Amino acid sequence: MASFTLSSPCLAFSSSSSSSSSHSSTSPLFFSAPSQLLAHKKRNQTRLRVSCKSNNSPNNNNSSDDAASASAASRIIDRRNVLLGLGGLYGVTNLAGSPFASAADVDVAIHYPNVSKCHYPSDVPPNADITGTCCPPVPTDDVQDYVIPTGDPMRKRVRAQFASEEYIKKYEAALTIMKNLDPTHPHSFPQQANIHCAYCNGGYQQFGFPSQEIQIHNSWLFFPFHRWYLYFFEKILGKLIDDPTFALPYWNWDNQSGMTTPSMFLPTTSPLYDVNRNPNNYSTSVVDLNYKGQDRGLTNDELIAENLVAVYRSMVTHAGTAESFMGAKYVTGTAPSPGQGSVENIPHTPVHRWVGDSVNQPNGEDMGNFYSAGRDPLFYAHHANVDRMWAIWQKVLGGQEFTDDSWLNASFLFYDENGQAVRVYVKDCIDNTAMGYDYDYSSLPWLRSKPSPVNTAGAAAASNAPFVTDVFPVKLDKVVQVKVSRPKTSRTKAEKEKEVEELVIDGIEVATDQYSTFDVYLNDADQPDGGKDKAQYAGGFAHLPHKQESSSTMKTSLTLGLNDLLEDLGAEDDDTILVTLAPQLGGPVVNVDSIRIQYTAR
User: Fold this and answer.
1) Which of 217, 277, 287, 342 ranks highest by number of CB atoms within 10 Å?
2) Catalytic residue at 119?
3) 13-30 residue pLDDT tens
4) Is 40 a catalytic residue?
């Protein structure tokens, strides 16, 4: 087994090559950081400007320079350092076709973190229950590129609701061993749980940009990070019980047969139990995939109907492009949380909050807050189903991922089942079956849960509501209804197949430490009612509490697909639509800058 230490040696940085290039099997633990870094502004985001100018000054390896360089107004990355120092993140052909081009702007993938510089998470509430830090042991061996084993038996993830007694005993045995390990061991349950804390609550800074943290939520990193996270958690559990076929269960909350807490997680004597769960949302309660922080007084049948529509909206209506489904682009030098994908938003976030104990715990621990979510074994079953949604989007619905190098080459660091610190890449986790696991069959009733059409043609024209440009930005302390102009109307089927019309709600500012939600309705009454299974309900926004780098607020965005919605509302020929934002538990700060319509190529 590879060695590791709790001391803090200087850890190397390296990243993958482009998807068509090979990478070396190891990266040295010590080498020089880029000596020049320039923040180049474009489209209101800080990006890396790559200059072909050479720098004759030697690289400075002193880590104390990080703080000074962070305050600099600009940074430069020498082209040689980008291509070589960052491990050939982009081949020279990707840089204007020539390594000697005068200059080129490239988006550089988020780089796996320097574990030796991991620190107490900056994005946790002041009363967070954290012992020490969320940081993993620092590797003493070289960090290796992980190679997915071949020839192993396919691991089958089973529906948690229908797991056999034999399976449950096996899972309990593996988790018991994990929980009994030395808590400083990278395979121990506290260390596994802390992975989520460090990556999600500001324990790491971006390579070359120490003022910007790494955040794997609210962006296109959400799905691939969590896929790798569960992959190694699963492999480690199998290793602990010497069973390479062991696979995690998944909580299929997208099917009415799985919409209650799986029974294996309920016995208080089981290692699968977690005391920090909401006592009001337990046992036989039907999960609310649109959860607003409290019981909404719906019957089980009403909840089930709304849940199925919620999944349909996230998997079909709002999943027409890679960005709308997977999340917004997030690269080195840019601020975290540019925007959630449809499934991360709903139902992923409401399920977290529904499970977490907001009754007895100050911050909704465990599942209801990022820093503590991984402490509940139910987290891994929940995220297994989230991962299954990605696989369904790919293989059933024909979804196509990003092809950007800055997505494919994003990298993370984990400890594998042998205790080796490994570097993994997004491009290697796109196909779950190639990673050696698949999902037990569960039907998809939400595919048949599209709301019934209702004719609302002319609703905006008949309304006295103001145009969005006349009243925004606004504070959502009440229901707000506005008209939004559509640049294109009466689009043909071919045009809609080529481009997705999307409603973009920009500059959503929320209190980072509060569970914030609001609903979005189209062509509805100024005080919408009638449930979330009607055609006018477009979707919603949900934010799981976590601070963001010494800030009490954060800004993000929400994108909702309009192609199906406008067709179902009979409003395809209207040049304006009526948009209603209905806040729920917004906390002290929920502001919105603007609402607009965009057209995104499929």
Assistant:
1) 342
2) no
3) 333 333 333 333 333 322
4) no
